[in-house]
């Protein structure tokens, strides 16, 4: 076994930053990524909140920091085992990777909106997810399936978050600000479009978030309605008819839009149940201590970073990746 090798499971933001930081600490990091290329979810986004920085700029910086680090792509890890002198990670195809320690940076999965049948995702052609809308932004054209630009768009918050019916009770933390960001970008991409956001509670907690929320209303004319969409139906001309209850005024609403965007939340990936590590009530990996040992798992030699332990922003993810490198150096020096 290479004594100084540290396995980094996951090649997204947390994985790339952790690998770069581990190398700076004198270790030999090795990234194992299940997809064909590193970058994670951020690599599929156009612009990022709250500054609307291009996501590719973040990926480019992280990639530059991890340049030259060994990796295996297209390789899905199914279990991580502690050993007497380190850890062993086992891939779905039987490959075994050994190291002094492992950083689990496996990220999150997006909630499958088909489980919310009342919104018609997968049945109605102009019901899309926030991830699909982001792809339209990247491609430079927002359009309905017919090719026409939408004139009226509804954005629904908390799809697959704070929802007992689908077993996703937790808040996904970034959906509110993503909905605000995407509403602004819709008005920039489609001049004259009317955008309405339907929300349970607006949680604009971060630096610049409240300012972005206010700007979306004042400068871009975005409307916000506190309420839930109870049902979505498709009209003969493929528009989406919505039944909503405005919970602020206590009355039902009906409106028809050209496109419905579902802000899908973060859910724990399947590996959280297969790795053999303790998990939290929300399904994500559990840290050793949620206050003072947030990047250490309860299992010796196995560490956690980023959204492996739950929803986080990119900045929080980067900070955890830096912290985990320092923690590993401290522990292995004992």
UniProtKB/TrEMBL annotation:
Name under which the protein is recorded: Coenzyme F420-reducing hydrogenase, delta subunit
Position of the signal peptide: none
Keywords, comma-separated and alphabetical: 4Fe-4S, Iron, Iron-sulfur, Metal-binding, Oxidoreductase
Single annotated GO MF: oxidoreductase activity
Residue ranges constituting the FAD/NAD(P)-binding domain according to the UniProt record: 5-321
Pfam families for this protein: Pyr_redox_2 (PF07992)
Superkingdom per UniProt: Bacteria
Keyword flag Metal-binding: yes
InterPro entries given in the database record: FAD/NAD-bd_sf, FAD/NAD-binding_dom, HdrA-like
